[in-house]
Amino acid sequence: MMWPTEGMENQRPGQAVDAPGTETAAAEIHVIFTTPEATRAALQAAGTVAQCFKARIHFLVPQVVPMGFPLTRPPVSVAFAEQRALGLVYDCCITAATSIQIVLCGNRGQCLEKMLRPNSLVIIGSRKQWWRATEQRLARQLRSRGHSVIHVLE
Amino acid sequence: MLKETTEKSSMAVSTPGPRVVVATTAMLAFISFWQAAAVVLNDMGSSAFYAGAIAEHFIGKSAPWFVLAIMCLAYAVRAVYIESCSMFVRGGVYRVVKEAMGSTLAKFSVSALMFDYVLTGPVSGVSAGLYLAGLLNEILQHFKAGFALPMNPTAAVFAIFVTLYFWWQNIKGVPESSEKALRIMYVTTVMVVVMIVWCGYTLAVRGFHLPPLPTLSTIVYSHDALGWLKHTSWPSTIGLAGILIGLGHSVLAMSGEETMAQVYREIEHPKLRNLERAGFVIFVYSLVFTVGVAFFAVMIIPDAVRSNYFDNLIGGLAMYLVGPISLRLAFRTFVVVVGVLMLAGAVNTAIVGSNGVLNRISEDGILPQWFRYPHRRFGTSYRVLNLVVGLQLLTIILSQGNIFVLGEAYAFGVMWSFAMKGLAVLVLRYKQPGEREFRVPLNFKIGKWEVPLGLGLITLALFALCLVNLFTKPVATISGVIFTVVLFCAFSASERATKREHSAHAELDQFNLQPGFELTPETVGVRPGNLLVMVRDYNALYHLSAILDRANTRQKDIVVLHLRLLTRADSGEHGLRAEQLFSFKEQELFTRALAIAEKKGKTIHLAVAAAAEKWDGILRAARSLQSSTIILGRSPSRSVAEEARLAGLAWERLPDPKPQLTLEIYLPSGQYSVFYLGPHAPQLTPAEIGRLHDAWLELSACVAPLELHHHDVVHFALDELLSQIEGGSREQLIARLQKHLEQIGRTRKKSC
After folding, report:
1. Per the CB < 8 Å rule, is A12 touching B176?
2. Which end of chain A has fewer CB atoms within 10 angstroms, the N or the C?
């Protein structure tokens, strides 16, 4: 992780997310990875909303690592998760500035609790099912914590 | 809930369209000892569904006493695991045996452990299937259906189905969380409470006899209980042999201990204390559940029919409680639901556990990298999963759903991995003597030699059971030895083949960079008032360790910052490459920092910053992060006082508003000096306070009735001092100050 201290100009070329000052001004939409298909639907919805409100998209991918594995060496390769997330963003032809964050964690709920700022706007995609899907439970959990959640069906 | 954050990789992708930044972060959430106990119990408690019945099948009605003894031994073995965890945060069998006795025996141990994992899935799946088939047959009989499902084949089919289900889940990379384990344990606890209350009521109504105490006359061996000892007289003439054989057939009750080593990494601070608590909870719970089932079954189910329920003992117990049949059937259904949840969970744990172990040894170069090749669609190590699940399916098919054969074989893997672990911890007492946070009790010294009596007895007991099982369980011995030897040879051969390709840095966590424009509490994810720990040398992280001991991370976050000092050549107009920004040294540094934080069970937040000058960079970082305290180790080139002086000078150069900061400089001995940067109330000695008070006494009488406070005296004295400096007596004052400081220095030396 690289944070140059004030006054230092040493970022890698093309590394900055946005021009200084614009990052905090723009609104942020959080999209949470669920399944590839459902997430595609969520990203498309986020793209449309982001275009209307000139918002940035923060694509959060919580990657739960089971206990038998070291946290930093999960069973699903990190490179794979990054490529998959990037592929989803490109597939949706999103025009808004997007940051993807893969979070290796032991528990998805706790991870999102820490990663989302209070009162965030969150978009979650899920499959159409007759029973209450995990994503619906997650949406309910996030709403109870004060976030605004848009639930998108794939 | 504590959180440990390690920022990881990033890649910035520049395209003609939007800019997309990909960053990877690792966030470890520590769990309470209750959750840790739930995770272990999910694995260990599942054995309650079959362990008592298998033991009684082999040794008769006195089996519950053996199960009770095994649970006590399990508590002792837990102490061995706690001691190994106090030495290694990731202290599984492989790691501990490798440290103690080298790679060859580690490979042998891991082969036994793999045999254990390969058997855990089938034994749990088949047991779940037997419970389900038993219930279905009971319902069919209740409704006079006229036919019954064949128990073993139905159980085998069910086990295959469950194994395939979890194989697919693991291929997709859907893991189980500790919260789910806790929920399963809630449901199980309801079942256990209902069972105890109902069984207690039944015994009160019907009266009871305790199972016979184990003696040579009460141990009734089944035809397949003695194996190669069948034709000797030892089992029925030598008491100890009988006891060991009985215990050998009951060891399944203590399977699942290895999960403790896995769960330790996740336990919150104080880690070892919480592990001990979790160990005690596990002991009490499994004692009540596993031993309770074994005792109640003998006391409640009539002898004539009990053997019919050996494959679903709790189901049988439910059917012989007092009460209407509909209620008993409902309870039995509940038992089956809980059993299927727990046992199916154990199938998944076995797949995840073996996947973890094989990945770990693949990283060590013992298995070729080929096994870790990610799945094209899901990114998981599907070849390892295919291998493990293939072996499990083969085991189910070969056993044809016979729980006794599976149980026998399972005991081989369980016992040998425990015995090797015990031996390794014993060897480490001599190989790595010194202080440990926890030691297995009963230690005394003869001269300078330590005699670890407790640890020695436990290891001896484990090896004795291994040896007895070798002779009494031919199927387990043959299959276990073949499996272990084949796996050991495969590991050895593949290790030689992959030795050249083995990277020296395989142990390092693969941290990379996440770019951030500014170092702020929000970007790092910490609260203002945090503690900023500067790290530089991965061999000198004593100050991080000390602050982790002292700090309460629920109140103050800890940021571990490495400041990369840029030379003029570095800070030119060309951007730095990733490998320049995040070198091997920094990976090693952060890997070790993370290991210390894991060991202490406390959160740290890692960051790298660049600066042209050390103190300028540190103070700017502290200001940006709104830190309250800067912590660092002793400089190899400067004295503590000199370092503090430089920090003070750099602080003066900071643009306004300057933050108030505390600087703590640690020595390797654990001592530390505190300095306050910026205006701050001085820490006065008692002598200085006394002098201030004398001056106040003298002056307050003179200025009465005007009110004079101590701080007025200080204020006035300072004004006078400054006016004298400005009034032309500066040189004399400085000369007197120097004389004063020299005098104080001499006094300090004398007192030292």
Report:
1. no
2. C
